[in-house]
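Instructor's aside before we start: the two examples that follow are unrelated to each other. I chose them only because their records fit on one page, so don't look for a connection. First example below.
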Amino acid sequence: YREAWDKDKTQISIPSDTPVMLQSKVNALNISNKHYQKAWDEAKAKSYDLRADAILIKHAKASRDIASEYKYKETHEKQKGHYIGCRTAKEDPKLSWAARAMLLQNDRIYRKAYHDSKAQIHIPVDAMSVQAAKECQTLVSDVDYRHYLHQWTCLPDQNDVIHARKAYDLQSDNVYKSDLEWLRGIGWVTEGSVDVVKAKKAQELLNERLYRTRPDEMKFTSITDMPDVVQAKINALQLSDV
């Protein structure tokens, strides 16, 4: 199938100055990496003169120094060995600040002035606040609140005394229940009371044994020649395996 094409494609010749060939050559030059880097390779092969004090070199060095961690910490590393300390803790600002913070946070030192001055307060005896406190104490005091009155002496035959005794006897629980003292210790059988009889009647109404009669207790005689009995016997003989 391809034999004719394979013979013909080797005999085709295209002139090199045709537009298609020229365009392909131009495309090859544009795509070629070697042609793209030709000028750079030629410039590398030649010698060049770049001074150390050039602007680009100085800019590169400055950028490197700024980005360098060693240059960033160079000042700190130089001062780290020269800092010995202060003669006293008060001269050191950090230690002074720490001591001040500790004093502010110390509760004992915070209340020292109050404890020193609280015992030096002198209040006059007749001050208004002291008098008001004494009156409040008298009103709240349990001793004065429970102060018993003197004992009255009354004649036993006075009308108010007799009336008070009668009222006390009427309100007394012992006197109110004195007529039932003879019943104390006497036993009582509840058989025959209204509640017991009512409970028995309710039990009889709810008793299923008395409410329903069991079939096996009922007496009856079955008739043997009834049509349904005869049909049942015939069905039993037909269904019997024997």
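Example two begins here.
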Amino acid sequence: LQPQGPAEARAFVNAFLKSSMPKMKDEAIQDILTRKAVVLEHYCKKQKKQKRKKTKGFTAKQRREMRLFEIEPEQQRYAIFLPLHELWKQYIRDLCHGLKPDTQPHMVQSKLLKADLHGAIVTVTKSKCPSYVGITGIILQEFKHVFKIITKEDKLKVVPKLNNVFSLEIDGFVSYIYGSKFQLRASERSARKFKLKGTIDL
């Protein structure tokens, strides 16, 4: 195609407008062509972005009133939660890429500090309150300041983290949890940096 000159382009536009608007007079068409500004009658309105409403969850008081975290007495049986413990052991093995005899203990410890402990079997080895020492069971619930543990005697124990030391064993690896330095929710531990060295007292 060869480029058209100004005269040919003007003739083409006039012919196109006449064929497109046969009822319009030549003067009106020329008036449209000579206008420097054209006001459009129809325009798109800008759509306002709707702000998403944040869904409000239940408050701590409402959760207590609804008893969302309470375990019914008929469900407080050790045997019911043994499959949960088996799942937890597999979860830890996968997390540590297999627990082998040559696995470094500090690597296992660092993984356990950030791992979810629901389903783990723990024992209170040291405590400022002698009545807590020796309690062993499966962790059913972990809160910021306490563990809820089901024992082999089908008793639900609420053990505070403060002033208690817990031992945890899996595949021959024994780790100790110092509750006083562990007062975090399970969801907060994954982003927390722990110091593996240093002296820790009750």
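The two ends are 91 Å apart (CA to CA).
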